[in-house]
Amino acid sequence: MYDVIVVGAGPAGASTAYHLAKQGHSVLILEKESLPRYKPCSGAVSPSVAEFFDFDFAPVIAREMRRVRYTYKLGDPIEAELTTTDPIWMVQREVFDHFLVQQAQGQGAQLKDATAVTAIANQGDYWQVSTTDGTLDAAYLVAADGATGPMAQWLGFPDLALRTASVLEVPAPVGDDCAINFEFGLVKQGCAWNFPKAESYSIGVATFLGKAPADYRKVLEKYSQSFGVSPGAGQVYSHPLKLWDGNHPLHSHRAVLVGEAGAIVDPLSAEGIRPGMVSGVRAAEAIHAALAGDADALANYTATMHATWGEDMPWAKRIAGLFFRVPGIGYRVGIKRPTATQRLGQILAGEVRYADIASRVMKRMSGGLLSG
Ligand SMILES: Cc1cc2nc3c(=O)[nH]c(=O)nc-3n(C[C@H](O)[C@H](O)[C@H](O)COP(=O)(O)OP(=O)(O)OC[C@H]3O[C@@H](n4cnc5c(N)ncnc54)[C@H](O)[C@@H]3O)c2cc1C
Description:
alpha/beta, eight-stranded mixed β-sheet, seven-stranded mixed β-sheet
């Protein structure tokens, strides 16, 4: 019998396992893929996540970035520098995620990869977990199985809408003058981006409102060509996104949802790595308290996530609802302002909340609408 079984070895699951194992609890991570595994993602991570861990992330940072470039319909370029204390990290997910799991293993967590969870059964004061390699028991369960995993549904949480995003991973020489690139206008109700890694680009596209276009490939082709990158040299991956859509419960009987399994993904930026890892840290604190006899600990986990991260997400969603409807106006009255990039950096660093800027942003957007 384990104290905790964590289902899913992404950043949210690995962070939960790390902190629980560090507290001396017996933890098993179950992962259906063989590690290291690739997760379709652009791999931008806020360095502010480091404050929750006592190890150095340097070995898995492929590139650090301050320069940001924007375009609207591939023209009207704007360049800005992030002035936050630390630059944004670019990571390769197969490397970053595996490193986090290894850190958890270093604290004593066990890993069974290439082992899918196929069913769970509530046994009252413990969970029985069926896998493709036998049955295991644990006092608590952590659902960290991402946007498409089955755990949330099995635990009785409502199905939440999924969107799809695509990313073209393409090896290419990356010059020193590279930047984090965002493109608005090329895709309706969404955006495209190009994040450089050590020797490759992650070129992505997502829509945040309405229906996704039938084929993202044309957008990816056109956008990658604008950087002189041949799309044929890379590979396109598509993956669902479970964006935040309301503050739903994140706990049930002896179980919690962390990361994208609980829709802990920013609805404006699609940032899921940092909030997923923070949810793992908070979930570990709650399970540690529950194992010590605190009957309210898991409910407190839901309350803490709602009061910290979740409280700000309605503002992110409101800004997304306006910005992605009229990106040309958003570009003119918002992105072009020198403070826009500074606020983006501060939000990713957790220094500023969307609530602090939302009314100004929305007033400017509405003013832009009125003036045409
Ligand atoms: C195209 C794209 C670009 C993105 N870019 C960024 C970005 O630049 N920055 C950012 O912060 N976020 C980004 N995101 C979001 C981010 O990738 C996710 O939010 C993040 O990976 C969620 O982490 P997680 O640990 O919750 O889940 P995941 O990383 O999805 O891990 C879940 C794990 O659970 C495993 N699993 C599933 N079912 C089972 C089962 N039955 N049994 C055992 N294991 C199972 C899966 O194999 C997987 O390894 C992007 C998303 C997409 C789609």
